[in-house]
Every structure is written in C-alpha cells, then in structure tokens.
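HUMAN: Quick job: go over this next protein and say how the chain folds.
***
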Amino acid sequence: MNQRLTPQAAIPIPATASLYASAEQIAERLMRALGGQLCFLSLVGNAGEIPRFTVSVGQAEYAATHAKELSPLLRKVRGRTQPVQTALGNQPALVLPLLAADRPIGAAVVVFTNPAQWDLDQAQAIAELAAGALEAARQIAVVQVQAEEVAERARLREIQLSRNLLRGVIDSIPMGLALMDADGTVLAANRALSDRFGLDPAALVGLHYSAAIGVWTASPAGQTFDYGVATKLRQSLLNPDGGPTLMEISSFPLLDPDDRPRQVVEVWEDITERVSLQTQLVRAEKLAAIGQLAASIAHEVGNPLQAIQGFLQLFLEQCEQGTPNRNFLELAEGEIERIVRVIARLRDLYRPRADVAAAIDMNELVDNVLLLTSKQMERHQVLVRRRLAADLPPMTCVADQIKQVLLNLVLNAIEAMKDGGVLSVTTVLQGGENQPRMIDVLVGDTGVGIAPEPLQRIFDGLHTTKELGMGLGLYTSKAIVERHMGRLRVESTVGEGTTFTISLPLES
C-alpha cells in the first residue's frame, strides 16, 4: 500500500553525531534479528526524498564495494509499506521501509548469504520495532538540537546585551574614542568622536584615518605603531559652530604576545576650558604678586608725594588770585591729589577698600580729561572732536575711578595715532520709559587698529602689545566699569581705528 508522504523537517547538523550512534546500534540489532550479514540503515532528510543519512554494519569491505548500488535499492521502497526482495551485488537482500505512525522515516537494506534465511512477516515486524526505536532517537536528537539552539540564542542575547551596554557606556563618555589597526583603518569609534567630524559611528568604522580624522603619519596612533609607546599631542580645531577648540589627543597601544602594538586606542579630549582655567589661575597669581609690589611702591612713593603736595599748597597760599598761571598750579595740585588716590588704589590691588559714590556731570569729567591730555595731543598732532549730549543728567559714580578709565582710554587712543589723527569723544543718553537709563561714553581714534586675535584678549590682565606696558590698564578699567554695574566694549578694524564704549547706569 502506497503512503502519502507528510512534510518532515531535516535533521539538524548538530544532532547528526548522536543520531548516527543510535542509528548504528539499531542497524546492528536489526541485522542480527534477521540473521543478515550486512545492514545499511538510511534516514529521510526531507519529505519525498530518497533516504540519504546512512550507516552500515557488518561486512565492511563488501559494503564499501557495493555502496554505489544502494541508492537504486532505496528507491524501490519509496512510498511502500511492505518489504521488497532484491539483491545487492551477487547476494540476496531485503529492502525494509521504516515507518513511524504510518510516516516514512527511512529504509533498511539487509544483505543475506542465503535467501531462505528471511521471513517477510517477521522482517516487517522487526522493521516496525526498529522504526520506533529510530523515531525515538530522532526525537531525542531534535530535543537536543532545540536545547542547544535555546542555549545559543540565550548566549547570543547575553552577548548582544553586553555589547549594547558597552556601546552605551562608550557613547556616554564625553571624550572621543577610536580603535585603529596598523594600516590606519578605524575599527570602532564612539559617538563623541563621530559627532565632531559630522559622521555616524557606523559610517566612521571602516574608513581610513586620513579620510575622516586627520593625517595618519602625524597622528598619535600612527606614531604609537611606529615606536611602540603611548603618544600625546595638542591640536587646535574648529567646533561645528565655528568656535576654536583645543584638543589633547592621546594614543595607547594594545600589545600582542610579542609586546608589539596590535591595535591602538586614540582618545580625544577637549581641554579648552581646562587650559583657560589654568591660564586664569596663573594670571591671578601674577596679579597677586603685582598687588604686593604695588603696595610696596605705594608706600615708598607716598612720602615724597606728600612733601610735593605740601609745597604746592604753600605756594598757592602765597599766590594771589590774579597771579599768572595760577590755574596751572591749581590743576597740578588737583592732579597730585589724584596721584595720591591712584597710589592708594595701587595699594588696594593687594588690600581692596570701599569707595564712596557721588553725583557727577559726565560732560565735565570728559572735559577735565581732555584738558589734562591736551599737551600730549598737541605733541602727536591729534585733533579732538567732541559730541557731548546737551542737558545730560547727573549720574552716581566714584568720580576718580571713572576719570581713571577715561584717561586710560584717551591716552591709549593718542598712542595709537603716533602720526596724528582724530580723537572723537561722544556722550549719549540711552534708555528711558520702560528701559533703564544709561550714559554711553564713546572714545574713538583713527589709529592702527587691533587685530582680531589680540582683540579677544584685550581686557585680560597682564596682556599688552606695548613695549613698556604692564597689561593692567584695560584690565583695571573693565573691572572699575563692572563694579559700577556697567559694560566696557570695544570695536576695532585694522588700519581704520578703534572705538571703546563705556555704558554706565545713571543710578549706580
């Protein structure tokens, strides 16, 4: 009776070894039960196929000689349920279909020395027992495969979770990381590094270092491969927003058993803020030292100034009001008084003190500064252009400090126009109604101008472009304006001139 073959999954490769051992034992028992000399046992891999998974027991030499004749014999029981009498070589044989629950799972070929040895009914019964044992072995093998697959999936899932965790940790590091081989190919990169170059981490992997990051031969990683030691360098780059960034790039070798770099990790760290803080710390220490020096100088210079001030006051007392040039003596006395206060402020660099604010006329303060500097402007052939706002209201400030700021800006402007030029001083009232009222004082010149790079550091302490300067003038001026809750700004064009703007609130 022909049987319709139902779909049957192939035996997975990992189960072949255990199934092969079970099939070999079943084939030997089947051969002995039937009294045969040789037994081939084949299993069906897929539904409708000729059995291919084959083991043999018995006469090994005869089996090897006639193995090629096995396939035609197996075809004879395809779709059958009863044994088929045939021959293998010159010896009689029985081909037994192996059925499990009326489903073909394979076939057995038993070779005899004498045809009278077999009993077809007995052979079919034995074949059924062998098929049941073989099906049980198959099911065990399938369960083993499924268990191995479950374990493998669990292992792969754990590996994937570990990779995801490691990737998350690496991507959360703010420093850029890259792994390179000896050829300069990027093997791995984190998010911080890929974002700096506008790429996805996956897109960066596989690229050559020179194609995406920089010059390979000059890189720390390339030098580590050449010399076998960790390397570090600093490099200035531009941020995606166009701002400057100082990067510290370090490389660390991953050594092979011979202590040679097999791969190299390169670390990119943004040290812009750290270097800036270190620079500010050094500058603060220098300013503290200057403060101590200023306090010492103030003490030494203060005594002679008191004598000069006393002589001037005595001389003024002896001069009548109509004495020629008396006004210059009075101006000199006022300036010596201001020098005394300036020296006191030098001492305040080391030991700050509080000043008293009072109402002043800003236009009058500007006129006094221009009068004090008139001789310098005359020597340098500098013309003054005043644009002072009329009816400017009084403002509250420490007059000497604001005068010091204006005097510093005017003298700087004169020095910038060594071959002559125009000094413009403007006062403007800003704000009103819902806006706070401010007085702006603009001091401009037509001098050489300031280049963009030093312009960014112009208010830093101890930074100066003058041969005899100390770098404290603009630093102190900015500090004074900010103590008055104001702002000091600068605009400059090389070859055209510079303009400083002081913005001060009316009520300080």
Q: What stands out?
A: The mean pLDDT is 81. DSSP finds 15 helices and 17 strands in the chain.
